[in-house]
Amino acid sequence: MDAELLTIGNEILIGQITNTNAVWMAQQLNLIGVSVIHMSSVADEREAILKAFDDASERADLVLVTGGLGPTKDDITKKTFCEYLETDLITNEDVLSDVTSFFTKRNKELTDINKKQSEVPNGCLVLRNKNGTAPGMWMEKNNTIFVSMPGVPYEMQGIMTDSVLPEIKKRFKLPFIYHKTVLTQGIGESVLSEMISDWEDALVEKEISLAYLPSPGMVRLRLSSKGFNETELKNKIESETEKVKPLIEKYIYGYEEYGKDQPKIEEIIGQLLLEKGLKLGLAESCTGGYISHLITSVAGSSDYYNGCIVPYHNEFKNNLLKVDSSVFEKHGAVSKECVIAMVKETILTFKADVAIAVSGIAGPGGGTVEKPVGTTWIAVAYGDRIIQKQFVFGDNRQRNIHMTAMTALNMLRKLILKIED
Amino acid sequence: MDAELLTIGNEILIGQITNTNAVWMAQQLNLIGVSVIHMSSVADEREAILKAFDDASERADLVLVTGGLGPTKDDITKKTFCEYLETDLITNEDVLSDVTSFFTKRNKELTDINKKQSEVPNGCLVLRNKNGTAPGMWMEKNNTIFVSMPGVPYEMQGIMTDSVLPEIKKRFKLPFIYHKTVLTQGIGESVLSEMISDWEDALVEKEISLAYLPSPGMVRLRLSSKGFNETELKNKIESETEKVKPLIEKYIYGYEEYGKDQPKIEEIIGQLLLEKGLKLGLAESCTGGYISHLITSVAGSSDYYNGCIVPYHNEFKNNLLKVDSSVFEKHGAVSKECVIAMVKETILTFKADVAIAVSGIAGPGGGTVEKPVGTTWIAVAYGDRIIQKQFVFGDNRQRNIHMTAMTALNMLRKLILKIED
Hints:
Oligomer: homodimer
Helix content of chain A: 40-55%
CATH architecture of the largest domain in chain A: 3-Layer(aba) Sandwich
CATH superfamily of the largest domain in chain A: MoaB/Mog-like domain
Strand content of chain A: 25-35%
Structural class of chain A: alpha/beta
Distance between the termini of chain A: 45 Å
Number of strands of chain A: 17
Shape of chain A: elongated
CATH topology of the largest domain in chain A: Molybdenum Cofactor Biosythetic Enzyme, Chain A
Low-confidence stretches of chain A: none
Mean pLDDT of chain A: 93
Strand order of the largest sheet of chain A: 2-1-3-8-7-6
Radius of gyration of chain A: 28 Å
Largest interface: A-B, 93 and 88 residues
């Protein structure tokens, strides 16, 4: 079953708001086996809306329409639906009673404009809205179902959960869609793709689709498959996830499980530290506190995190982390010797079991021929065991900061789990 | 001039990522006088893409396409463009040289798959991508311009800013849209709106539109007007900006000038520190390094920033910032006494002229009846002068961290500029 999402409203087109409704609806539909094949946003204009209805009904079995249901003059969705369905607006007594009690409860006066909210296209199935005044409406034309809902996210979500999703499941026999996502760090999309190309090629005949989802420093590999036997699908995807694991094991820092949120690397590290009872300390030069910010953005991080020093000049690397001034003279602040000294002292300062120290040239200034912008040294320590590595990331300051953080967190994870690099 | 935004990629349709590109592009186009009349998202499928190209060319003069340009097998945008334009892929030597140097700089091997990134439809205008390997491409068919760009936000934004927007301005006579944005911190949208309501009401007949653009801790007020006489528009908007200033002066931390990026508060603070020759030090408990991250995300911040200590437990507030243990016993770590002690020692530790110290309960745990989640103390110091204040922000951890940072930075700004609170 193919669905299309249609948003009506100028606020999306002028970039005033982000279309978060579309993400939520797509996730909910995918979870019950409905494929979203198209999304559109159009203005509050009669011709544009009618054209969008026509186009959508050619593509999809189900069209979910949000927006344009407010009581003001610029909202014309209901009127345009009547024109499209060749019918008229009639007052629905259930909705009128809902709207009246909505205003009574809030001690607000019910105006004629508010009463108009209870008018719906004749013949539609009304979907009650417990969070607002504009009802949802379920309509059909030429074998396509149209559902119209308000654009306010929690009103739309209420109507979807209470009425639309149950109604779809009741009326249609839907396939099951199973997903699992492999989260990798430290390998680019193209090298990754070459490493797993034989495995990837064999997915086609198993009817599993694979998507590469890159972000700086990370690539997510999403496997998905659709069918009617839930157990079979699950086993098939889990088995392929197991097969790809040995090919790229050292890059995999976690998995996104079906129906759950994607875990962030700082959450995975946090969980690991908590399980092992380890305390973390940080020393950040080029990342300027970003790793500390990521770690502390996780609720409960004070259970495993002790603190951070950001020594943004050599003088403070010396004063606060006892990096000997000879290190700066002989090797510079962006050096193996410097990050090793930093990470050792961080363990002591924060009475930590594990620590990360980074020093690099984030840019755009500060690069030299030997050490261009992007050059970064990272050291991670677990007690006495220290691993340090040099990277050359790139030209972009924000990206260098982010890449350094992602790489450092994954190095720490591998050190704790004794995964060879 | 009418534009359409087309996103290609399954990740949007299954709800895995939010389409933030569309918001950013719509804003940028609106600012130069181009109207966005339609947005669509389609799957990485030949037929769906070809149909979307056809439909878009009927509606719009300009179609901006993002996504589907990765080097892997699931990305078919380029191939489908060739089919649509009835042309072939050819290697572009400039792009090949960009791609090669992209990999060389990073000490990574250039694979055959990477080389394919330099293939573009014959006859297209290539738009260089300084942040990645997939170039932008400017093509035309039946009087409609198609621009294809990668979906990675900072790559797309780079190509838009460097090439697409200037090219549109060069080729078309667009109405002039002048705008100026007043940046405020520390006042909510509704209170702000009441304070300026008479001024706001008078804008209508001057044909100036006003938008409230809220984000946690901040509200931006954007004034804009459209026409063909640039000087007249500019004078009109500047004059209204001057009129609103005395009404809300203490909340205004800056302005976004026409044609320039919105200055972030950390950039405004950075500029101020640089001009006055002041050095900054930080001590962050509840914000966990976020203020330090913001400060150091500005290029050149090492000229005025010395460093930060994140003491995530009382023990380290005591060891590193000499907060007396009696302070914790008598007043707790989230107290006036604690942040004053922290800010004083931060001035000394980092040999700083100005400093910020924060301590609060970010949540979700740690709240009490007297000090609920969101309770935060902030102290700012300029030499011997210290100002401290308590806030109770709210329940959401990420929002509390962000609100604390925004508020602290603005308190420091006001202290330096001697603006009364």
